[in-house]
Design brief:
The structure is a homodimer. By secondary structure, chain A is α/β, with parallel strands linked by helices. Chain A is built from eleven helices and 13 strands. In chain A, α3 links the parallel β8 and β9. In chain A, α6 crosses α7 and α8 packs antiparallel against α9. The first copy, chain A, is globular and about 50 Å long. Chains A and B meet through α7, β13, α9 and α11 of A and α7, β13, α9 and α11 of B.
């Protein structure tokens, strides 16, 4: 079933201990869309500048992603650059040029509005709310946010979260949002803010799902080499919502099927792990459905007792 | 089946955000022994001073622990004091008085020598090797070490590790021992040093088991309140080896049964989680077999997909 993804389509400059790339395709909507495209029909809403390269457009199109909502504006595409620490658990932002993204007011094409699934990438909460309001037939909506919105746009964010079915967030942001260090109690507080399904991402340590009457922990996948973690969290989100859309999960008919949610967290972890195996979106150029399923089965092996 | 545990029996002073205790029973062998006593017949080898309190002796005895190897020497019992950071992920050692432990040369009672299982708590590698040499009928031997021995007693430690079937170690120490940041590659290097079974402990994030042809990840148990993490790693070790001893695991008849090893890691996690629920060894005063089994089942629920 079809899925609308909203967020940035950008160019990134990234340096990790394994190398340096000055400019490559990136952005939350790019990673989410590519990862989700292994499971569902994806429709992207984003803005790019007149420097956006045809080959990058073609990569997205080659994964069957609907690009009717990819607005082209005069000016340059959003550019971000960052550098990772030696252990890659920290990164420093070297440059953020919003460019055309500064005036992004996402407007959904008519053909997107009846889509049942919506993933709101990390953008201003008010814009996220505006997108949700344009959808006519939602089954499941949710997304991501970050420390900046939590700290400086709290009231707006809380108003936005009230309408979400799920929130994907990393552990330090969960603690910040809840004002509570203990994760179990932080999760309870956040679920009271609206999203009944909460996924707390813990980087290399995996993710934890909190939902009605259920808690589930997915381990991180141990890679032999982490080449570039950029986009791993967004790829996780893409695998998660993509799988739910593929299964046609419908919480209106009762609480989400917990089995589907658990498996969605594993597929999220699978897509996040592949993302780290190469710079930027490179791994998605070659990744096959068979490799995705193989890694899903590895997760089974790693956790069964 | 019976299990010999070697390590410190000590008094600890501990401060956490939940309170402060000036002096309470502690030490690696104490935690390992208490945790293992839920699964197997435990025999402790350690030394205490003439200040060791009868009620502390009685607590160990009440769990059926054989104390013939608990030597009493003139002087004071080993004392350690530490203070945890607000998030309890770091701790500062305030005081280490080795006292009678400084001259500890573990000598095994005759009745201990035929025991098939041996857990060497974190003491000087040469002493660990000496204990192993006194055992006459070993099936499975291994233990713990720490950054101090890895850094300053490396050659001695490597000689000791060569004889071990398993090593339990935390992630930063695994990286230090292997000289390799990537955990998967660090594990391969360490397993080449001797211990074919390696458990990397990751604190609140759980543990990873590496063994022949197998990798297994156990999540951390999310507690509502972590009162005092002192002894959690040793309690993990006690649950791990205790379960293997209970099952009578015998790697001489082929590689360890992976199912037993996986379950041993879960029982280790279970015992580590209980340990954190109260100061020092307090939780073991009331902990029942039924609670242990209930939490084991919770781990099943948290990880099944």
């Amino acid at each position: 079933m079809s899925l609308v993804v909203v967020g940035s389509v950008a160019y990134d400059g990234v340096e990790t201990p394994h190398g340096k790339v000055d400019r490559m395709l990136g952005g939350a909507a790019t990673y989410i869309g590519l990862a989700a495209s292994y499971f569902a029909a994806v429709k992207i809403v984003a803005v790019v500048g007149d420097d956006f390269a045809p080959e990058d457009y073609d990569l997205l199109a080659s994964r069957g992603i609907d690009l009717e909502g990819l607005e082209r504006a005069p000016g340059k595409t959003f550019f971000w650059a960052g550098k990772y620490s030696a252990d890659m658990n920290e990164r420093e932002t070297l440059c953020t040029d919003l460019n055309v993204f500064a005036d992004f007011r996402p407007k959904l094409p008519e053909s997107y509005r009846p889509a049942p699934y919506l993933l709101l990438g990390n953008i201003q909460p008010e814009l996220q709310r505006g997108v949700r309001a344009q959808m006519s037939n939602l089954r499941l909506a949710g997304g991501d946010t970050m420390n900046y919105w939590i700290r400086d746009y709290r009231a707006e964010l809380l108003e936005t979260l009230r309408e979400w079915d799920f929130l994907l967030i990393n552990d330090s942001e969960a603690r910040m949002l809840a004002g509570e260090y203990n994760l179990r109690r932080a999760a309870a507080k956040i679920r009271d803010m609206g999203p009944r399904t909460l996924v707390v991402k813990r980087g290399e340590y995996g993710a934890i799902l909190f939902a009605d009457g259920c808690q589930f922990t997915a381990p991180g996948y141990l890679l032999d080499r982490v080449i570039d973690p950029t986009g791993a969290g967004d790829s996780f989100a893409g695998g998660f919502i993509g799988y739910l859309a593929q299964q046609g999960v419908d919480p209106a008919g009762g609480p989400c099927d917990m089995r589907d949610l658990r498996r969605a967290v594993i597929y999220g972890s699978v897509m996040g792990s592949f993302c780290c195996e190469a710079f930027g979106v490179e791994r998605f150029r070659t990744l096959t459905q068979g490799e995705v399923e193989d890694r899903y089965r590895e997760f089974k092996t790693f956790t069964d007792f």
